[in-house]
Structures are given as structure tokens and as C-alpha cells.
Specification:
Blueprint: E1 25-26, E2 29-30, E3 66-68, E4 75-77, H1 78-83, H2 99-106, E5 113-115, H3 133-144, E6 150-157, E7 160-167, H4 178-194, E8 198-204, H5 213-231, E9 236-244, H6 246-249, E10 258-261, H7 272-279, H8 290-295, E11 301-302, H9 308-319, H10 321-329
Parallel strand pairs: 7-8, 8-9, 9-10, 10-11
Antiparallel strand pairs: 1-2, 3-4, 5-6, 6-7
Helix pairs in contact: 4-5
Amino acid sequence: MPPGSAGPSFPVAKQPMATTSFTKKSLGFDVEAAVTPPPASTETAFVKKPKLGGKSKKRDIPEGLWTKCPDCESMVFDKELDANLKVCPKCTHHFTIGARERIHSLVETCSFQEMDAEMTSVDVLQFTGVASYKDKLEAYQKNTGLKDAVITGVGTIGEFRTGLGVMDFSFLGGSMGSVVGEKLTRMIETATDRGLPVIIISTSGGARMYEGMFSLMQMAKTCGALAYHAKQKLPYISVLTHPTTAGVMASYASVGDLIIAEPHAMIGFAGPRVIKDTTQAELPPGFQTAEFLLDHGLIDAIVPRNEMKDRLVYYLDFLTENKRQAALQS
């Protein structure tokens, strides 16, 4: 058609503006972009930062290397604690110590001769409960390596040959049953026959109720043996450690010619609540500690564990002086 002539008009599509658009999925069909779309892959890529080298600052402390002191809450290296006889080097808290460790700390090397090492308890009453008495004995014997709650024998402390009995709280709370009473009685009688002094180191929760009346009979039996020992004018030193209570405290532990204790040891017969309910009286603070009993005359001295051997040698020297002089004169 010549220029300038009028002709039929047709709709003209408007050219869209050049803008950037992206393909979107909507209602199940694609809308085509007006310009070149970005690459087909729409996944966002994240760049991972490399991890810094080196180990974490927080490290787990292996078990069996450190022990937390319950008094000063400091961490004590186990080797240091063992070298110090289980006494905290910072606050002098006395940890529980086993019978064999205590014997090793007191007697001269290879001088201790154990007595009645294989004697074990018998379940005479056929006691049953959550666990039978027989099962408990077997479990404690396996866990502690002990036959019962006391080790007895004769050893040399300093220059003095001495009858020695040491209780272990880890075996049924150091409770006194027939075996404990019998072993202590035999040791005392042996010392009496040989003219030796006796030292008993106590730590106990009292008589062993699994054996009923038989455990209570040990209180009289041990005291009877000590009475014969005293008739021969032979010394008996009682050492009270934490805790010493109930039937043991009410028998041989409280009849020594000399009664000494470790610092802060709990010593008494019944618990504070039982005493308060029975007497209906206000109890003084710390009335069952070694320090309170020293002030009121029940015990004669408080001796730290790492000084125990030297003090025992000193006491034995004093208590056996007359015997030595009589032996020299004869």
C-alpha cells in the first residue's frame, strides 16, 4: 500500500520492557520469560568454611587420676593423696583408708603376721531380705578382697612387737559380727599369752544385725578378753577413726588404757536424731566429733594420720616402761 494512504488498522502488540525475570512454576504450567533466563539450576550453593585445626579446649579428665576433697573442694592428684596417707594436703581432711593400707603405714616392712586370714561368717539365721546375708557376704568379699571387716595379727611398730587389729569400713560398714569378734578375741588372747601390748583401730557402724543376738554377744566376748589382758598389766591402745559408733563404741573401742582419735572423726552410740527424740533436749553442735569428746574427757588425744605411727611408738614406750624395767631386773 502506498505511503500516506489510509488502510485497514490492525492491533499492534506492544513491545515489553527489557526486564529480568525468572521462570516460576505456577498452577502446573511454565511461564516463558521475555528475556534470556538465568541458568536452569536454581539450587543455592553454600560454601563450607574449613574447620580450624587443633583440639577442643575442653578435655575429659580420666577416672582414677584426681579426687575432689569434700571439705575444701580442691582437686587432689591421686598419687599425691596416696603418698599422704589419704589426707588432703590443703585442708587435712582425712579420707577413708583401707585396713591393709593402714597396716602398711604403721608396721615395719614384712613384720606383720596375719592371724585367721581365712575365717568367714556363716549365715546361721538364714537371713533373707532384698538380698540374703550369704549373697551380701559373697559380694563384699569379691569387691573388697577381704574375708570380713577386720584384719588381725602381730606386727612390729617401731621396736615394739604388738598385737594389732584394724577394721575396714568398706566391708558391710565395718559391722561387728561373729567373725570380727572372734578374730579380735583370738588376737587379744595371743598378745596376752606372749606379753604383748594390743592396739585396735576401729571404724564401724556397730553390731551386724544380720547375725542378730550372735553379733551382740561379741561385745561381751571382746571386753572379757581385754579384761584378762589388763590383769597381766599389759597396755591396750584404742584408736577411733571416722566413724566409730553403736555396738563397737559401746564395747572394746571405749575401754582402752589410752583412747586416741583421728581429727574430725564421728564418734558416738546412736545418731543425733535418735538421741534428740529420746532425751527431748537440744544437743550442742558437733557433740559427736573427736574435738568435742576431747574437750569433755572421753578421749585422751587427737592424732593426725601421718603422725600416728610416731605417736604410737611414743605411747608404747611410755606404757611398757615398767614391764621393761621388771624384765631387766629379773
